[in-house]
Amino acid sequence: MKAPILAAALILSFAAAQSASLSTTVQTASASSAGVTPDSLRCNGLANPLGVDTPTPRLGWLLEAKNPDARGNKQTAYEILVASTVAALAQDRGDLWDSGKIASDQSINIVYGGPPLATLARVYWKVRVWDQNERASAWSQPALWTMGLLAPSDWHAQWIGHDLPAPTDNVATPARWLRKEFVADKPIRRALVAFAGLGTSELYVNGAKAGDAVLSPALSDYAKRVYYITYDVTGLLKQGANALGVVLGNGRYYAPRIVGRNGLFTFGWPKLILQLRVEYQDGTNAEITSDESWKYTEVGPIRANNEYDGEDYDARQEMPGWAQPGFDDSAWTKANLASAPGGVLCAQNIEPIRMTGIVEPVSVKEISPGVFIYDFGQNFVGWCRLTATGSAGTTVALRFAERLHDDGSLSMENLRSAKATDHYTLKGGGEEVWQPRFTYHGFRYVEVTGYPGRPNLLSLQGRAVNDDLASAGDFSSSNPLLDKIYQCVVWGVRGNYRSIPTDCPQRDERQGWLGDRAAESLGEMYIFDNHLLYSKWLQDIVDAQLDNGSVPAVAPHFWTVYNDDVTWPSALIIIPHSLREQFGDDAPIAHNYPAMVKWIDHMSPFIADGIMPRDKYGDWCMPPEDPKIIHSTDPARLTAGPLLGTTYFYHDLGLMSEYAKLVNQPEDAQRFADLAQKLEFGLNAKYLNRQAGQYDNGTQTSSVLPLAFGMVPDDQHAPVLANLVNSITNIYHNHIGTGLIGAAWLNRVLTDNDRADLAYTMATNRDFPSWGYMVEHGATTIWELWNGNTADVQMNSGNHVMLVGDLVIWLYQDLAGIQSDPAQPGFKNILMKPTPAGDLTSVKASHRSPYGLIESEWHLDKAGFRWHITVPPNSTATIFVPANSPDKVREGGRSAANRTGIKFLRAETGRAVYQIESGTYEFQASNG
């Protein structure tokens, strides 16, 4: 979905500084005889990041195989050079750090080991590795990072803006414009700017926008944490007169609605802090900071803006040249010093939100005179670019919605109070092209009114806007419906990344609900490289934790919801495990361990007789008995809250016991394990009906959770499984009967217990309730409700991911057979155990792991099972080939037992198990 982006000025200055010496490095690379070369260097998970504020950044790289057909490529040692100049690095001098040759296969999360780095220091680095034959590679291409502002005392700027009395009602406000002119009186060597414009902002230097981020900076609890952005603006400055300009939108800092049913927490009025450091070629520096010398106005073209209601833009009030030197700002006022948000200033260590794609409309219809409905054919998140020609003062309105009424008009009811409307007033004089800056919408359909003339398909263009995360996986199969469902998930997940994982993008909510992503997030990690995003969201959760340990249901707490239930806050415990499993990263566990313990200790006193009774939301949005209602009232369908609380808290305690061992807290590990045992005993004493072979009233979720978490006594495992199967097949007639809690584990429980066929049946149903039902009724993203086409519109988002459950996890781990080995996390060793199910004849999947691309593609026909596998360099895989006997398994047309890179381990029922080295393989297992 994206290519790494580096500011043009940075590339040019970097290339110019190193030109001759870099060519020497490249020539050396061609002479290397090693089978691998290091590539795609990352610092703190990003390519060439600016403004790193961690004192000891973590470094990593991928290994590229010179011969893609070679097997067994791996790293046995590495050497990192870190230098203060390109020249030193080109001479193979690590004047900041030379790690020396380190005997290790580690290629991710390597901590910088040199002396402390100074604020705004520019750092260059490269790496070489030794392969399995002890041959040294050439040095990698150089990479860089710059340090940020490392201490509060490094900030000399002041917060500026225009603070007003706190609003008492919902008030629409225009954007704020700030500018500052200065003179650079010498030739410039380098210029770095660090700034935070709240709520959202854009920086302009001499009239040109810096960077390509939108809706920036990242959301946070601004009273606890404010994220700043760093840009290299060397290429935008010039010797002589210069100008800085910043536009401030409201974002989530100034709440668009404070009163009413869905009032939001407001932090204050938009404001700015900015610090520019200009380094001259003679070695001197200058600093330009935000202060009272800046000029300020609200009399600009953006007359109103917020993320829920839209943006109003009057082109007649544009200010040509406002961010260039020489602009007449005599009508502007002096900027005022503003109150600080209160949060610590931190570098934003995630990919920004960008415009990530263009979506063209598929049709436009005039449903009544002057009312035009555009259909984009896909529910997505972003905005529209408008093209129009007309007289000054003409106002075009764009209203956004996910659905249409039967008469073809927009259905806005499910947006609740969100107006989701943009207005553009023309200035006249020729063709005008416009798109908003400080709003976004979730939509498939757009109503256009007030257009001068008759719009056509070229008059409106959709722009997808979301966190610009790299694609991490692809999935397809022989079942077109399954592939359509998967694409619905991809679009839904993508659109709900807004520097936090949101629940929905269209109505007056758009919050980071913990329950929606607690377990489902693992599946997302197969689709997108969201490592840094989820690490950041964990910090948001911790920032929202109360002093007594209580964790909210929403983070950041733009809605203040503290229920002290278990299932939603469990995201704080579960997500670090997923990050370790998928990315091999223990840091989120270590960093958040004190907060996790604090929550466990806060909740534990609620336990009585081995039961954790705390539950607020139940098995949220399970299929109801009436297609018009949202929540079931049938006791037979509802899973008891204490059963949910007890099973989930048991799972949390098990994870916490593991975490305690990782951070060397053995006493914690034991007490968590002991408490978990009490919950296991309490659950079975209170809820297990041995005569009926079920827990409590026998709902699907009441069976799924004890089975998923290993709480079922051995002698009751078969009866409880049978109860689950009976509920699916007989009571729900081969359909799902869970809400988001049960769905998060359902498919894996069935597959782990040899009922992948039943999981496949549910995954490919076309009638209610099922994901296929959504597709059959026009969904292009996953609905909030199983009955999303018939239920109450007040809670009926057409773009939610919570009911995805573990479907994507199941597609990748079970159908495709791509799973990280818990003993060697991050796909250092891959567990590959594909499970053909139902009428599937093929599955093709890939995943871009921290070590490189993993591929699994299998075909099943009368001749047998054919399986293409790619294992990236520096990884291995344990593979489970579907075969009645190892004698039936061949690779590359010959017996697998005699092939390079393959080691036979054992035979299991219906499987031959091998350990394979990195490389590409073609396995065949014949029938008979």
Summarize the entry for a quick read.
The chain is α+β, with helices and mostly antiparallel strands and 928 residues long. It has 17 helices and 47 strands. The strands form 9 sheets. Strands 19, 20, 24, 25, 26, 27, 30, 31, 32 and 33 form a 10-stranded mixed β-sheet that branches. Strands 9, 11, 14, 16, 17, 22 and 23 form a 7-stranded mixed β-sheet that branches.
Defining key terms:
disordered N terminus, alpha+beta, 928 residues, 10-stranded mixed beta sheet, 7-stranded mixed beta sheet
The portion of residues assigned to helices is 10-25%
Mean pLDDT: 94
Question: Segments where pLDDT lies below 50 for 5+ residues?
Answer: 1-30
Given the structure, what is the number of helices? Answer: 17
Number of beta-strand segments: 47
| Rg over C-alpha atoms, rounded to the nearest angstrom | 29 Å
Strand residue percentage: 25-35%
Outline the fold blueprint:
Elements: H1 8-31, E1 36-43, E2 58-65, E3 75-83, H2 86-90, E4 97-98, E5 102-103, E6 110-111, E7 122-131, E8 143-146, E9 160-161, E10 176-184, E11 188-198, E12 200-205, E13 208-209, E14 225-232, E15 240-249, E16 271-280, E17 285-289, E18 295-297, E19 302-306, E20 310-314, E21 333-334, E22 336-337, E23 344-347, E24 353-359, E25 363-368, E26 371-389, E27 395-401, E28 403-404, E29 410-411, E30 421-425, E31 431-434, E32 441-449, E33 460-467, E34 473-477, H3 480-495, H4 514-517, H5 521-527, H6 531-544, H7 571-583, H8 587-603, H9 641-662, H10 666-687, E35 688-689, E36 694-695, H11 700-708, H12 717-731, H13 740-743, H14 746-752, H15 756-763, H16 771-776, H17 807-816, E37 819-820, E38 829-832, E39 842-849, E40 852-861, E41 864-871, E42 876-882, E43 889-891, E44 894-895, E45 902-908, E46 911-916, E47 919-926
Parallel strand pairs: 14-23, 20-30, 38-42
Antiparallel strand pairs: 1-2, 2-6, 3-4, 3-5, 3-7, 7-8, 9-16, 9-22, 10-15, 10-18, 11-14, 11-16, 12-13, 12-15, 16-17, 18-21, 19-20, 24-33, 25-26, 26-31, 26-32, 26-33, 27-30, 27-32, 28-29, 34-39, 35-36, 37-38, 39-40, 40-41, 41-47, 42-46, 43-44, 43-47, 45-46
Helix pairs in contact: 5-7, 5-17, 6-7, 7-8, 8-9, 9-10, 11-12, 14-15
